[in-house]
DNA sequence: CACAACTTGTGAGCGACTAACAGTACGGTA
DNA sequence: TACCGTACTGTTAGTCGCTCACAAGTTGTG
């Protein structure tokens, strides 16, 4: 038997999903998000509009699908527990971003950020998704049933860090990915918190 | 002539606007934002749907209309120029929020925040509007044509402050406006920046 | 009173999104 | 191999947010 590999159905599913998303990102980059209809994406992908919606709950998810919450949360959890929360979170963000900016997903990430920067609906959705990231960070630092007050404080710290990172991501996309992304994130965090976040420093 | 008072047209205009918004907020509070159509709002207000759109560009603006950017920016500009940006912004936010939470708009503010907290679309739009606030703060601190690098640093600081404040606003709405709002905002800022933001302290 | 400016309602239409139904291909089973 | 439940897809129709074009009524002005 051919191992426990995913079934044909599963492979097709992820393949059409990938196909649809790649056509979507291409069309959005060419004509803009608002000037591309879901029907356009469907036609370009050779499927019906309904199929697009079955794979992506909303048009915006064609761009935003793919969360990094667990990566960030794992990075935060991995940092020494005796660091103050802001440093823990901030440095974990810099590390996570370094991994992403060096990976094969770099171009994908850049394309998505470019769209986000100048499409209000996408920008808004992305900011709201940071709310989920914030909660993932809080869970990583405090466990599943945290005391409300501690959750409040950690939530404030996490959302402040994420907001600073967002400014860095925005600038990175605006400058077409030329600057060093982890450096930008570290600089944004330093500007906000008056502290070093480059992880070469001890 | 009857002075320079607003014309009849103008008075009617602001009156219908107020009427529509009050009916909208009432209906949204009763049935929820997503389960209330713009047509419902129009009917309740005794106007056509088109009129609603002429006064409010989108359904979401029925809740979000009314920006505080200029208030915040003025507050930031009013603080001593020798303070570091984060303290300047943070304390200005606490002061602005104190004014608002004590004013007659308090119930209106609370109603709008309640809707924002549990309606994803509104939450997202509100977060995105903080982007505009961030730019207003940067403009207040740096003038109209700032150097990109300084704008980046101030933007990071401002967005981090606003994110922390948002956590406080969320909690305030979740607890039905019972806690002291400026105190909550100060606590969130303190948790994020490890510094005091109550303006009684020197 | 006449004319311009403004506001509103109506109707048609687009696009995002959903629900219901039907057809087809896959996966395991006898 | 033949069979059947399951999953995936397409089609159709419909709701809702939102825009445009046009007509009609009201307000302000000479």
What does this structure look like?
The structure is a homodimer of 202-residue chains. Chain A has ten helices and no strands. Chain A is globular and about 55 Å long. In chain A, 73% of the residues lie in helices and 0% in strands. The first copy, chain A, has helices spanning 8-31, 38-45, 49-55, 61-64, 69-78, 85-102, 106-118, 120-142, 148-174, 181-193. Chain A has two domains: 2-59, Homeodomain-like (Arc Repressor Mutant, subunit A), CATH 1.10.10; 66-193, Tetracycline Repressor, domain 2 (Orthogonal Bundle). With 202 residues, chain A is an all-alpha fold. The first copy, chain A, starts with 7 loop residues before the first helix and ends in a 9-residue tail after the last helix. Chains A and B meet through helix 8, helix 9 and helix 10 of A and helix 8, helix 9 and helix 10 of B. Chain A binds a DNA duplex (30 and 30 nucleotides) through residues 7-9, 12-13, 16, 37-39, 47-51, 53-54, 57-59. Chains A, B: InterPro entries: Homeodomain-like_sf, HTH-type_TetR-like_transc_reg, HTH_TetR, MftR_C. Chains A, B: Residues 14-74 form the HTH tetR-type domain. Chains A, B: Keywords: DNA-binding.
